[in-house]
């Protein structure tokens, strides 16, 4: 069962902290829109666009740097400190009186999130070493994100019937504080001392070096580009398609986004059993190929999102949401398999930064193309970008090179090194086979 993983008390508390923090973030999103209108009037859209740009810049630029800075600290202290920083930033937002103050506080808040999230994600595979349980935890996490998109606006709407939007920031503060309390109460694993002894520059670059030297992770990055291209089209342009294309109202916009979320949640529920039978590469590439082909077919064959009719469009968005989750949900499994325990945190931070760099490209591309070319043409361009991501993943992540146990040769280790105690002597060094990850002894992937 999907929910059997919640029997683990440590994971149960961390998952509860994640849900509560997500709900608080959802309330923040609604409140920010209303605050932006108060601060900038008709320029509120510009303010919100800049806010989302700042969020992505913080994610991409600060995640590896922050991970290197805090890697000497126990994970509990890092998570609690970041929750408290986020709570303090949210507490200040209702009192701003100029736009630049919004930008500054959002940068602080999202910078803390760029530190919190990879640290949190890297802890879960240590708490749940069994792969079946970890897969179910990934599906629950996907489910939590999708439910937050549905529940937070409803909670915000109910609250606004009785209080002003400023009180929504109070809900955000409460969410982060409660998240910190749950983290404090959880029994978390200790950080390895070997990682703590590394020089700062090595800690700063370590995650990126491991990530970019591992074929399956280079393939994962390409698939993240494909998912970002499709996701940006949905998030940025659904409102335009529904309102301008179909001539429908705001409830139908919510319905379309709900169909996308329903598809994603369906995938989260089905993926654990699917991944018990099929390997990650097959499942993720199939999902990316299907959704890319759908976008290209729609653009080339129909020329308009309105051609399938409203029910057909909802069904399309349902399938797109399903495939989107199929591509993204197994990512944690690949990251866990591709790093030693002490390297999980920098590798998750590298993935966090690189995957959001894809969104930093596709978000403005979806908006700019949609405003100037039209929806079908935008879907064609983003669909081609997604296809490029799929083809690149096929090249960078070959099925023959994705074995976990790899035979390889060491030419630069001391003969007394215990790592090669079971190796066979060759004319050039020492040859053996084991589960292979990039680390200090293995700096290149075997050819």
Structural description of this entry:
The protein is mainly α and 447 residues long. It folds into two domains: 1-191, Up-down Bundle (Growth Hormone, Chain: A); 207-397 and 424-447, MFS general substrate transporter like domains (Growth Hormone, Chain: A). It is 75% helix and 3% strand. It is built from 15 helices and three strands. The chain has helices spanning 9-40, 44-70, 75-92, 99-127, 131-160, 166-185, 193-196, 200-213, 215-245, 250-277, 280-302, 309-328, 331-337, 344-372, 375-396; strands at residues 405-410, 424-425, 430-435. A three-stranded antiparallel β-sheet has the order 1-3-2, with no helix packed on it. It is globular and about 75 Å long. The chain starts with 8 loop residues before the first helix and ends in a 12-residue tail after the last strand.
Helices and strands in order, then pairings?
Elements: H1 9-40, H2 44-70, H3 75-92, H4 99-127, H5 131-160, H6 166-185, H7 193-196, H8 200-213, H9 215-245, H10 250-277, H11 280-302, H12 309-328, H13 331-337, H14 344-372, H15 375-396, E1 405-410, E2 424-425, E3 430-435
Antiparallel strand pairs: 1-3, 2-3
